[in-house]
Amino acid sequence: MTSGYLDMRTLKYLLYEVHGLEEVLRQPGYDQFDRASMELFLDAVRDFSDKELYPYFRETDAEPAHYADGEIRVHPQVGTYVRKGAELGLLSAHLDEAEGGMQLPGMVVTASNYIQDAANNHLMGYIGLIQGCTELLATYASSPLKATYIPPMIAGNWGGTMCLTEPQAGSSLSDITTAAEPSGDYYAISGQKIFISGGDYQGVENIVHLVLARIKGAPAGTKGISLFVVPKKRPGPDGKLQANDVTTVGDFQKMGQKGFSTAHLSFGDEGDCRGWLVGDPNKGLAYMFQMMNGARIGVGRGAAAITMAAYQASLAYAGERPQGRRLTRDGKKDLSQEQTLIINHPDVKRMLLLQKSVAEGSLSLVLLAARYQDLARSHPDEALRQNYQTLLDVLTPIAKTYPSEMGVVAVSNGLQVLGGYGFCSDFVLQQYYRDIRIYPIYEGTTGIQAQDLLGRKLAQDQGRAMDVLSGEISRSIALASEVPSLKTFAAQLKATLEDAQGVVKHLLAIARKGDFERFLADASIFMEYMGNMAVGWMWLDMAREARLALDREAPGYPGGFLEGKIHTMEYYFTYELPRTSGLREVLMNNLDITLKPPGTLFA
Questions:
Q1: What pLDDT, in 10s, does the model give residues 139-155?
Q2: Measured on CA atoms in the order 542, 544, 546, 549, is the torsion positive or negative?
Q3: CA–CA separation, 588 vs 581, rounded Å?
């Protein structure tokens, strides 16, 4: 069930046994599907990835996207992948049938994209951007805009991007200056955008940019931002494409993900760049957050996929590489024995278990976020829909951050398993390490995600989101407590949750006093605590399902597979979850070290 970069059995175990995909398939809008049809789809995606993605993974690193003669040139497989992906339905799987889509649940689309990410994280972004753009257009654009732009995008003929960042305004969107001036039925667009993933590449005939800009006279700050469709080439009255004064100024050469183009774009250098307003004026950032939040979960998914692929590679190496000898009872080595495989060494097993716990725990967290998204959209009970939306809101920054930050740690440990070979280009671990390092930066850095979690999601409505999340975790704890072998671990997670509630109460009290800088100063530490606890929650659920399946001798999963889940949970609760104790001490401190003036700290 492994494909060299993936464990399909674990993916399906999480989908069906842990996160209840079949319940989602019973909801209105998804009830035309069943488990068998979803299995066929995911198996087809795996086969597609085996053929069209994984064989090109090393090549897309060795032959990076690069700027030449006014355009960004990419590996020829990019165009092939987008076109064949469209034929398989990968570009339209997420859209409603009314928009020409397959109307698959988000859990299945997430699983599909995860398979592709694990096979080749350089290429998946091209399709992911098309998915995000078409979903946003389907939600907010006018019927004429949807009719013009969605069909060629899901057919694989046109690409898509999101254009937010500017040279003078990185994550501070309040400071963007790209301008939009009304001119009849369109707006004249002028300005520059940087770090635009998929901003220009060969293999598609057009690229549709979703651009944040200010209409002349709009309010300052984020309240004055509007959203526009700005194609690289605009359709003329006869349907033929013509240049739209969008210039590729250059590209950014990166340490990883070299096959995924990143462009610097300029709009309106010749005064003839046309954009079309999406929705109402001055509401662009609210619209874009749909794509941004989806992208944040997508970043967590991609990091989880890279972590899994790196784990598979280091696990395979550890099972083949002989090195050293096992210690005898007197603590000595018997040199007459043959060398043992390094997978038999306890420290190597610890590193492999770290990778496994992060890879599978991260995937579980991302799939849970997708489940909440599906139920927030489709559940017939409005009150439950609102609860699922609250859970999705609070889980999104965690699902982006934990896989990204801990994925870097896990892949680093994978490289360590290989020793010196891990640092050499002959082996793939160094590429995974370079590729994953961007994920804590993508779609809002860890610091931004942490401030969103603490300063927005948990601070609003007097901490209601924490109450709702705590209720979900508490239900898992109660169920696990009914399993004799899991009672100790359930109690451990309960204590961690109670500590988290105490930390939130302590921090919100600081916010109520108006000391917001101190309130958010250690938001990243708080995020680390919440991510660590959330993945402990994931592992407790996984172990409970595994234990129950073993007790009833359930078919479909061999005993060794299920026991492995329980052992990995034991590793996590022994080595990883206790880290929250130290984090709690930091969060409850009163020294305010990082609030001191820079001259005092760095003299």
A1: 999 999 999 999 999 99
A2: negative
A3: 11
CB-neighbour burial class of residue 335 (10 A; exposed 0-12, middle 13-18, buried 19+): exposed
> Are the C-beta atoms of residues 229 and 149 closer than 8 Å to each other?
yes
Task: Provide the token pair at 572.
Answer: 């996590």
- Amino acid 436: pLDDT: 98
pLDDT, the chain, mean: 94
- Confidence tier at 234 by pLDDT (50, 70, 90): very high
Closest CA to 411 of 428, 424, 399: 428
pLDDT of 513 > 60? The answer is: yes
Closest residue by Cα to residue 133 from 299, 282, 291, 283: 291
Considering only CA atoms, which of 217, 213, 218, 229 is closest in space to residue 140?
Answer: 229
How far apart, in whole angstroms, are the C-alpha atoms of residue 496 and residue 375? 27
d(CA 137, CA 143): 9
Match 């079309």 to its residue by tokens.
276
Q: For position 4, what pLDDT does the model report?
A: 87
Q: How far apart are CA 454 and CA 504, in angstroms?
A: 8
pLDDT in tens, 287-327: 998 888 999 999 999 999 999 999 999 999 999 987 877 77
- Cα 244 from Cα 277, distance rounded (Å): 16
**How many angstroms separate the CA atoms of 60 and 122, rounded?**
7
Assigned token pair, 230: 């700005």
User: Looking at 99, 405, 443, 528, which residue is catalytic?
Assistant: 443
Evaluated on CA atoms 473, 103, 135, 441, the torsion sign reads positive
- Check if the beta carbon of residue 503 is closer than 8 Å to that of residue 543: no
Q: Write out the DSSP string of 343-357.
A: GGSHHHHHHHHHHHH
Torsion angles phi and psi, residue 151, rounded to 5: -55, -50
CA–CA–CA angle 31, 37, 38 (5° rounding)? 85
| Secondary structure class of 103 (helix, strand, coil) | coil
Distance separating the N- and C-terminal Cα atoms of the chain:
57
Expressed in percent and rounded to 5, the helix, strand and coil fractions of the chain are: 60, 10, 25
Identify the pLDDT of residue 1: 38
- Is residue 443 flagged as an active site residue? yes
Q: How many degrees, rounded to 5, is the angle at CA 268 between CA 262 and CA 271?
A: 165
Task: List the alpha helices (DSSP H) in 222-318.
Answer: 284-318
Can you give the C-alpha Rg of the chain in angstroms? 25
Q: What is the pLDDT of residues 60-94, one digit of tens each?
A: 999 999 999 999 999 999 999 999 999 999 999 99
Taking residues 426-439, report their average pLDDT: 97
- pLDDT above 60 (res 2): no
